[in-house]
Amino acid sequence: MIERAAQGSRERLPLGVAARLSRYLQVLTQAKKMGRSTISSQELAEYTHVNPTQIRRDLSGFGKFGKRGVGYNVDALVSQIRKILRTAGRRHNIALFGAGRLGQAIAGSEIFADHGFRVVAVFDVDPDKIGMEVRPGLRVQPYAEMRRVIEEEGVVVGVLAVPSSVAQQVADDLVAAGVRIIFNYSEALLQVPPEVTVHTSSPAVDLLYALYFYLT
Q1: Beta strands of the chain (E only): which ranges?
Q2: Which residues bind DNA (predicted)?
Q3: Check: CATH 1.10.10.10 for 7-84?
Q4: How many C-beta atoms lie closer than 10 Å to residue 146's C-beta?
Q5: Max Cα-Cα span within the chain
Q6: Where are the domains of the chain?
Q7: Domain 92-204: homologous superfamily in CATH
Q8: Do strands 133-135 and 138-142 pair parallel, antiparallel, or not at all (unpaired)?
Q9: In the chain, at which end, N or C, are there fewer CB atoms within 10 A of the end residue's CB?
């Protein structure tokens, strides 16, 4: 049961709290898709590697969540965390760069849509990929069109699924186009202005993280 959402949820969250809430939301969203109606803090801990006490502390800071002996209501907690993270009822447009195997997999995945993000444009420089349909209604566009499309579609996030050798140039072009959030799937270390946030996703890092918990 959720009695209330704290007024503090309207304030800017500490980075650690926001990161953990995002992880909880990822697990809860998948649990919801699997038909789960409740989930315990212990289960959340097992999936996120966050201490159950920390989970309860994070959630209690925004209101009374859950019921002792029953756990958390998945639907209600998903709704409340989305409100806390300010993604409830909103859609954020994404531009994807790179239509290779990784780019196509990202474009076809539901993971962004599950959390209120929508891939509205895919760009590539390969003439053989221009015009290719990566998802029903979504075709690869020439890289030269990126700035116009970003402005027209109100893109707020750029996702890089490009070779490391060109990632910095794409990042520079995104910054020049006004994009302030970049998801980097390349191995490049990007240099961006302080107002731009870069999130780098690496399977190797995720494996190292998992291996640490296995060994300890």
Answers
A1: 38-39, 72-73, 92-97, 117-124, 133-135, 138-142, 155-160, 181-184, 197-200
A2: 23-62
A3: yes
A4: 21
A5: 59
A6: 7-84, 92-204
A7: NAD(P)-binding Rossmann-like Domain (3.40.50.720)
A8: antiparallel
A9: C
d(CA 43, CA 22): 16
Which phi and psi (to 5°) does residue 36 adopt? -75, 140
Predicted model pTM: 0.70
3-state secondary structure (DSSP) of residue 116: coil
The answer to whether the beta carbons of residues 28 and 78 sit under 8 Å apart is yes
Query: What is the distance between the alpha carbons of residues 75 and 153, in angstroms, rounded to a whole number?
Result: 31
Residues that constitute the known binding site: 98-103
- Residues tagged in the binding site annotation for NAD(+): 98-103
Handedness of CA 214, 41, 199, 102 (dihedral sign): positive
Query: Rounded to whole angstroms, how far apart are CA atoms 80 and 65?
Result: 9
Tens-digit pLDDT string for the chain (216 aa)? 333 343 344 567 887 888 888 888 888 988 988 899 999 889 999 888 889 899 988 888 776 666 676 788 898 888 888 888 877 656 789 999 999 999 999 898 877 777 778 899 999 999 999 999 999 999 999 999 999 999 999 999 999 999 999 999 999 999 999 999 999 999 899 999 999 999 887 666 666 666 666 665
Q: Which two tokens stand for residue 179?
A: 């994009």
